[in-house]
Design goal:
The complex is a heterodimer of chains A (246) and B (321).
Chain A: E1 2-9, E2 13-19, E3 25-29, H1 36-44, E4 51-56, E5 59-60, H2 66-72, E6 73-76, H3 88-93, H4 104-113, H5 129-142, E7 147-151, H6 159-174, E8 179-183, H7 187-193, E9 196-201, E10 204-209, H8 211-214, H9 217-224, E11 228-231, E12 238-241
Parallel strand pairs in A: 3-8, 3-9, 6-7, 7-8
Antiparallel strand pairs in A: 1-2, 1-4, 4-5, 9-10, 11-12
Chain B: H1 3-21, H2 32-68, H3 80-93, H4 102-122, H5 128-151, H6 156-166, H7 175-201, H8 206-211, H9 216-238, H10 244-252, H11 260-284, H12 293-313
Helix pairs in contact in B: 1-2, 1-11, 2-7, 2-9, 2-10, 2-11, 3-4, 3-5, 3-6, 3-9, 4-5, 4-9, 7-9, 7-11, 10-11
The chains are: A alpha/beta (246), B mainly alpha (321).
């Protein structure tokens, strides 16, 4: 599966090593400028590393034909743009581009998985923010990739849409066996969503492991410089800042 | 064939015979041999040239708007048309234009040089911002050199020829011009159509397009080649004809599903129709001399551009989200 081997880009990312597992959700967390987006863009193959390699099943990502890479790794950029006012179906169909076919079944399946069948023929400008986010994820699903990489897909979504998108991502990992990697700013969301967390600081991997470990109070203090601790039951974790740090 | 293409093709197939009979002299009621001569040697090549030049301008405009994700982009902005114009102006200045073939060849060389410079400056990395800046720089440079050549014109006749030619027209063109421009324009449209799926992907931004397997450097090369062939050959035979590449994709877009790939062929047909109709109407106007096609289309195009801007100001989307 997808792997970072001493992955580096100038001084934005400095030698990150990690393996992305299938069937799990991996969250990339860290402060602003820690290199989260750089890491996910290198893993998606949209940036070329200045050091180390991103590997897919042991093959260097940059050695794969761009279309072959695109069939394996689906990527949802941060603040995705939709320039022209396409219909939701035509937007989702873009996911088939790397396959060079116009098969309807994967497009229909992706629209259905995101609950967008009824909106398929609507122009995207008439969709709500949450519906657009789902349509953009459906575009990635239509390509049937083995890995789904999403850069802050929850930004600008309200709580209900965040919950629904998180559920969809979890389903993709657990039921379809895909590797899902998400850059998440909200640590509570990351804790509740992810099976594994990569915590970055200054372009380096500071901690890696289950959320309970990677997002422990000690790690958060070291990376964010705040005193915080987790409240609540497993599966419903909420981050609480100590007085004076809020 | 899409609905838009079918409508435009039908209109074009209707307009071509009409343009053959219409003019200062109507074909009906004149001696048959004279009528045959007018149609075969003057009107048919002129109509086909209008179709060729218009199709190239329309397709290139649609492709550039898709590439730049900007409905206000015009293919003339990116250095290739000014490069071709510079080549043509040089041929007048050195007295080479009279030979018939040297004008279009020098013009094509100018377009080729602009294309090569554009590919060289923007090719590696293939970023859109770099492409736009390089294109604008080449357009400014070619414009300045054209002005320089005009200011150094050896005699008033060369000057007058240059200025008249730059205005763009299809008057007194021959089959040789059709033979030169038509194959190159067709090849250019085929190249642009090949780039079309990548333009669709670009709807979601450069990063998303790369992640979908689009090779941005290859896309840029396809666009430079496609726009170079269509616009370069168009300028070589007809001079500068502005605004068609801007207007036509707009008029056609509402008839399509707004994917850039759905727009290339209908824009080619729409451009062909617009230039053919405009040229036919112009030659019927009761003026002392014939109004130059390039001027007439700019006179229509500039208010159209203004109208687009006003629509944008009033919250219109021009097909964008």
């Amino acid at each position: 599966m997808l792997e970072a081997h001493k992955l580096a880009l100038n001084d934005r990312l400095r030698g990150v090593c990690t393996k992305i597992a299938a069937g799990r959700v991996t969250a990339i967390c860290g402060p602003n400028g820690a290199g989260k987006s750089t890491l996910i863009r290198l893993l998606a193959g949209v940036l070329e590393p200045t050091g180390g390699e991103a590997l897919m099943d042991g093959v260097r990502l940059r050695d794969l034909h761009p279309r072959e890479r695109a069939r394996e790794v689906g990527y949802l950029p941060q603040e995705p743009q939709i320039a022209w006012d396409l219909s939701a179906r035509n937007l989702v169909s873009l996911g088939r581009l790397a396959h060079g076919d116009a098969r309807r079944e994967p497009v229909d399946a992706a629209l259905a998985a995101m609950g967008l069948e009824a909106l398929a023929d609507r122009p995207v400008s008439t969709l709500s923010g949450g519906e657009r986010a789902r349509a953009l994820l459906a575009r990635v699903l239509a390509g049937e990739p083995r890995c789904i990489l999403a850069d802050e897909p929850f930004a600008s979504l309200d709580l209900a849409y965040q919950a629904s998108l998180a559920q969809h991502l979890r389903t993709q990992a657990r039921e379809h066996g895909r590797a899902v990697v998400v850059v998440v700013h909200g640590l509570s969301l990351a804790h509740n969503l992810a099976d594994r967390v990569l915590l970055l600081k200054d372009g380096k991997l500071h901690a890696e492991g289950p959320p309970e470990y990677a997002l422990s109070s000690d790690h958060l203090r070291a990376v964010f410089g705040v005193n915080a601790h987790w409240l609540g039951e497993p599966g419903a974790k909420v981050l609480s800042l100590a007085a004076g740090d809020a | 064939m899409s609905r838009a293409s079918a409508i435009l093709l039908a209109a074009l197939l209707l307009a071509i015979p009409l343009s053959l009979v219409a003019g200062r002299t109507w074909i009906f009621g004149i001696e048959e041999s004279r009528a045959m001569l007018i149609v075969a040697e003057l009107r048919l090549p002129r109509a086909l040239l209008a179709v060729t030049v218009g199709a190239g301008l329309g397709a290139a405009g649609a492709a550039m708007q898709g590439y730049l994700r900007n409905p206000l982009a015009d293919p003339g902005l990116f250095g290739i048309a000014p490069g071709a114009a510079l080549g043509a102006v040089l041929s007048f200045s050195f007295g080479l234009a009279a030979s018939g073939w040297l004008l279009p060849i020098l013009s094509l060389a100018g377009a080729g040089a602009a294309m090569a410079l554009l590919a060289l400056l923007a090719g590696r990395g293939g970023g859109i911002a770099l492409f736009t800046l390089a294109g604008l720089m080449i357009a400014s440079l070619a414009g300045a050199l054209t002005s320089l050549v005009i200011s150094l014109a050896p005699n008033p006749w060369a000057l007058s020829e240059i200025v008249t030619w730059l205005m763009g027209a299809l008057t007194d063109r021959s089959w040789a011009d059709v033979m030169l421009a038509a194959p190159m324009t067709l090849a250019g449209i085929v190249v642009l159509a090949r780039a079309a799926p990548a333009l669709d992907a670009l709807t979601l931004g450069e990063d998303a397009a790369r992640s979908m397997g689009v090779d941005m450097e290859k896309l840029l090369m396809l666009l430079v080649a496609g726009v170079g062939l269509t616009i370069g050959s168009g300028v070589a035979v007809a001079g500068i004809i502005g605004f068609v590449g801007l207007m036509v994709p707009h008029i056609v877009r509402p008839l399509t599903d707004r994917r850039p790939s759905s727009l290339i062929v209908p824009s080619a047909l729409g451009g062909a129709l617009l230039v053919l109709v405009a040229d036919s109407v112009l030659r019927m106007l009761p003026l002392v001399g014939e109004l130059r096609l390039g001027i007439a289309l700019s006179l229509i195009g500039a208010p159209f551009f203004l109208w687009l801007l006003l629509r944008l100001r009033r919250g219109g989307t021009l097909g964008l989200t």
